[in-house]
Amino acid sequence: MSGTPRVDGRPKRGAGRRGAAPAAKSPGGPWTAVSPPEWREFVGSWLQASGCSVRAAARGDWEVELSDDLKRRWRRQRVRLVFDPLRPTLPRGAWFTAPGSGAGRKLLEAAVEVPQITRRTALAHVPGAPEEGLASVCKVRGLSWGHSRLGPVRYDRRVAFHGVVTGWGGLPWQERWVVLLGPDGEFVEWARAPELPDIRTREGLYQINQELMPEQCTRWLAEARRHLDRILDERQLEWERSVGALRDAELSRLGKFFSSRIEEEEERLRRRVTNGDESDFEQGDATSLKLEWERRAAEVRQRWAVRTEVRLWGLEEWSWPVADLEQELRAGAVRLRLTSRVDVARGRPALPACPSCETPAEMLVRSRGAVRCARCA
Ligand SMILES: [Zn+2]
Questions:
Q1: In terms of domains, do 369 and 328 share one?
Q2: How far is the CA of 183 from the centre of ligand 1 (A)?
Q3: Structural domain tally of the chain?
Q4: What ranges does the record list as Low complexity composition bias (predicted)?
């Protein structure tokens, strides 16, 4: 792989071009003639990810053997990319590849045309569920669990939306989120992390062969928006509470400062009135202090005002192992059969539904002749 060009962002200057770098003096400046290293990195990574083979050539150029798709698209087998903007002449058929050049635009157009989506499979955990079954997640009192029975493992199609959430105002923060939805867009989980936690994965969609339907994508997208909004609202409330305390402290300091200044001012005014030399100007001082106070308080409120922004940057389609778990719950002579969905990737059963009110139960007890959870007992 000695011929693989560096795509680490550092421009590689050709040999024998001593003194040819004056244009790099103001990196990032508007008129810098050297193409930005991130650009070169992007081009290299994208070409390789699209199935092209990229080889370093003389003078920092790249010789690219195109993928079949790009061969058809650009009607050529290979192309030489020149990144050096100071090159006086280009080799025959070569493309000058700066972000705004014709070739740069061609690359960008091709890159945005097909959305990049990753396909991954979550590997099954062994064992698929803990031996004690639902007893591992749901406590019982006055009842006892029978043996658990784990059904066959099947694979659900799921989708993960990756986003960066930024909170503005007060103390700005930024978080990376992943929201995982099930086959019908139902919410499965979310993590405040760059990746879904506690799973082992493999690239590709093993176990799922049927094509993804466009309607399913539309539904996923709509549901993802709904769930993101919901989580964001919750997170924003949490954030407003913490930020609100800081804002109120600042407003109260401001209030103390101005009310004592106004008091002083009014005290002085009273003394002057007693001495018989009141003037309109001084009456105005307390008023302008009040106005100033209002202005500063509005500023503080605005500075702490909360605003969030979500930027989605990635999608993953998942093949996820799940199974159903059945377990008997014995209450004297009564036997109930409870079922629960198991996340086989983590070997973890979901909470069983309460037999009386059907909400997920962490604890079940006997109450008024039935099995009930803490909510309905
Ligand atoms: Zn209940």
A1: yes
A2: 27
A3: 2
A4: 18-30
Residues 80, 150, single domain; the answer is: no
Both tokens of 37, joined, read: 């290293």
Q: How far is the CA of 374 from the centre of ligand 1 (A)?
A: 6
Give distance in angstroms: CA of 136 to centre of ligand 1: 19
Distance 370 CA to ligand 1 centre (A): 10
Residue 233 lies in a domain: no
Asked if residue 187 has pLDDT above 90, the reply is yes
Is residue 76 one of the residues assigned to a domain?
A: yes
Question: Residue 199: is it exposed, middle or buried by C-beta count within 10 angstroms (0-12/13-18/19+)?
Answer: middle
Q: Which of 329, 353, 370 is nearest to 140 (CA)?
A: 329
What is the distance in A from the centroid of ligand 1 to the CA of 145? 17
- Structure tokens given for 129: 């569920």
pLDDT above 90: residue 297? yes
pTM over 0.85: no
108 and 147 belong to one structural domain: no
Report the separation in Å between the CA atom of 289 and the middle of ligand 1, taken as the mean of its atom positions. 60
Q: Environment class of residue 1 by beta-carbon count within 10 Å: exposed (0-12), middle (13-18) or buried (19+)? A: exposed
In the reported structure, the alpha carbon of residue 358 is separated from the centroid of ligand 1 by a whole-number distance in angstroms of 6
Strand, helix or coil for residue 310: strand
* Å from CA of 280 to ligand 1 middle: 72
Q: Is the pLDDT of residue 190 over 80?
A: yes
Query: Residue 143: which domain range?
Result: 133-154+322-373
What would the pLDDT profile of 83-141 be if each residue is shown by its tens digit?
988 888 899 989 999 878 889 889 988 887 765 678 999 999 999 999 999 999 999 99
In this structure, the answer to whether residues 103 and 146 fall within a common structural domain is no
